[in-house]
Amino acid sequence: MHGVLTWLKKHWLWVAIVAFALSRIYIFLNPPPYVRYFEEYANIWYYGWPPYLKHWYEYPPATIPFVLGPLLLDLAGIGKYALNFRLMSLFFDMVLFGLILRVMSKLKYSDLTRLANALFYILLTLKAKDFMYENLDLLFGMTLFVPAVAPLLLGKGRSVVQWLMYWLGTGLKLVNAPLAALYFFNSKEKLMKRLVIPLVTCIVIWAVPLAIFRSSLSVILVYHKDRQLQVESFPSLVVRGVNLITKSEEIYFSQYKSFDLRGPVSDIVLPISTIAMIGFMGLLVLYIWRHRQQAANPAFMMKVTLLFVFGYFLTNKVFSTPYHLWYLPLLVVFPYKNWRQRGFFYAVTAIFLGVATTRIPSVEVVKGLFLDTSLPIFTQIPATLLLLWGATKLETVQPFQLREWAEEKAQQVVETLRQKTKKVKRKLR
Q: Do 422 and 330 reside in the same domain of the chain?
């Protein structure tokens, strides 16, 4: 046993890479049987019904090239839409895993901890294989992950990367808007530069869509405003729990192609969830402001991003299973205080994602989708609350894994001060 552990310590990186490669081959060769690809949207646009202007399209405009690109390749005789879309998603997946490995190499982990983290990520994403490559949530997860770990990976140019990923994230989902405060205080540049960088990067991502679609982009907001409680959302699970007693609610397939709830209890909970989400995001921005001196600390950035994700899960009326891809990379690389804390998050996450991706015997509402079981009520509600509570307890005051990073940054500051002192002395002479 000791020999095996020694070998794993020595070759952990290659073991992780081989395990990842094998898992991705399996995922790629075994697509889910029932998938609604974006292909129908791409065809609608290509053949004369542009998004927002004529087509009631629910996603922000940065999704358009990723949705339309696979069709253009298909029409050019390169592959088929589904294959092209999955290949694009596989590329994002490979880049993200490479970044995870790179971040872990920057943190003061033992080699076995690095391997355990990598294998946990591989196993959970393997369990989530049916939605890994069928949507853009993997890419959105990357737009949350990269800015949070940028201080570990980049030097002077990190603000540009952070803001580019931020605006790309808003162009994919819009929901990450409150994190702007985190990236603003993360920068130590002069105020003017801190304002110019987000403005320029915003123009890079949003200028063309705003010029083309203008006020038609409000369709996105109208679409979301009209949506009801989606059955997988936390507020919906609360209603479903109450419905075990009241028997007053019903599940129906809405015009937005999702299973929603309606009934007297749903009508009460729906506006409460909206107010709760706005209130939580306001509190998060206030929390960032109060701790703005820590904003350059990657552990703090990871913590705040996790708080944002789990708070969003807790309060938003819409939740889709692929949203689990948003937080997994951050949970894996976070510099936990000890293995007890890491084990807590890993256990809760395994249950949270495991139940969400498991077919539980019950009456089948639609092919492959079971909605009338009560098990998620007793697992997903506690899991969401525990993950949010756990995120509030994460320590960010220079965890031991970040000491080398902190020492390196301190040396850079000292060197900068020395250079400035030399310049001042020269001028005085």
A: no
Q: Are residues 290 and 408 in the same domain?
A: no
Clarify whether residues 323 and 418 are in a common domain.
Answer: no
Query: 359 and 425 in one domain?
Result: no
Report the SS3 class of residue 31. Answer: coil
Number of domains in the chain: 2
Asked if 41 contacts 57 with a C-beta cutoff of 8 angstroms, the reply is yes
Name which of 366, 372, 409 is nearest 33 in CA terms. 366
- Which structural domain, as residue segments, surrounds residue 41? 2-397
**Pairing relation of β-strands 229-230 and 364-366?**
unpaired
CB–CB of 127/25 below 8 Å?
no
- Whether residue 115 is found in the same domain as residue 58: yes
Q: Are residues 301 and 406 in the same domain?
A: no
State pLDDT tens for residues 139-168. Answer: 999 999 999 999 888 877 788 999 999 999
pLDDT tens digits along 30-74: 888 766 668 889 999 988 899 988 888 889 999 999 999 999 999
d(CA 311, CA 64): 28
Buried b (16+ CB within 10 A) or exposed e, 283-309: ebbebbeebeebbebbbbbbbbbbbbb
Q: What is the pLDDT of residues 84-142, one digit of tens each?
A: 999 999 999 999 999 999 999 888 888 888 999 999 999 999 998 888 898 999 999 99
